[in-house]
Amino acid sequence: MYYIGIDLGGTSIKAGLVTKEGDIISKVSASTPVKEGFEGILKRINELVEEIVTTTKVNKENIKAIGVGVPGVCNEEGFIYFATNLFWTNVPLGKRLEELTGIKVAVENDATVAAVAEYTKGVTAQTKNSIFLTLGTGLGGGIIINHQVYSGSHGIGTEIGHVVVGENFYDCTCGNNGCLETFVSATALVKYCKKLLVDHKDSTIFKKVNGDLEKINAKIIFDCAREKDIVALQVIQRMVHYLAIGIGNLINIFDPEVIALGGGVAAAGDVFLEQLQEEIKKYIYVKSMNVTKIAIAQLENDAGIVGSAMYTKLKF
Ligand SMILES: [Zn+2]
After folding, report:
1. Within a 10 A sphere around the Cβ of 175, how many other Cβ atoms?
2. pLDDT for 290 beyond 80
3. Domain 2-119+301-315: which topology?
């Protein structure tokens, strides 16, 4: 029996045929025709499913389910309330894709399926309770409780990026001020870095980008931190402070075995992981029980395909 996992992003759609153990047998991808709207994207997903069936010669009856990881908020029936990057509001993706393919479909948020990928083959494998945080343009979160995905009563839970942890100098895209993602995402690091550079013309960051502040990204900040640039270090210290508050809160609520960090920012874990682990201790209520492991996620590129495929296994 096989599964199809679909990683639906704002720029590309990746699809793969996956075994019940979570191994990818075949992968295909295409660009996301965002301008063609819901119908255009739906059609493209169906074409990818057909391409997998044709190239692998797998019998459709042997495909147990299709899982789709979406950059948005959806309910259990695969109805998507909104997916900002795709310009979708209120679309019945699960139902329509099921009609088109004749295969059972499950839809979940992309951070949640990445959590399932880690749970299947990564750093949270064989744990009962775990949390996955993806630190990229924003901050997404997925929670697994008692070996099951937890997404709340209406599918709108686990928006960890929008938990308020302080006061910030700019508002979040959601309209609030102080959301965790506005302190710790790659976007947040760049914004704070630019603010600090106003008073630090001697920073090596200026040299790295030839004076063009628009070229600053999280990778450059981490590279400069490794060279002990004072601005870069300050940016990371602030990120660590707020990430520790956020993670401390999660530990106090959920008491997970592992919290996995994924995404572009986590890839620079060597710069901040130790500092983060130390800082988290301040916020753990039961000081003698500092047992939650903080680990960098392992399944970066294929997490969307593996996770969405394996999510269907947990669901059906
Ligand atoms: Zn927010």
Report:
1. 8
2. no
3. Nucleotidyltransferase; domain 5 (3.30.420)
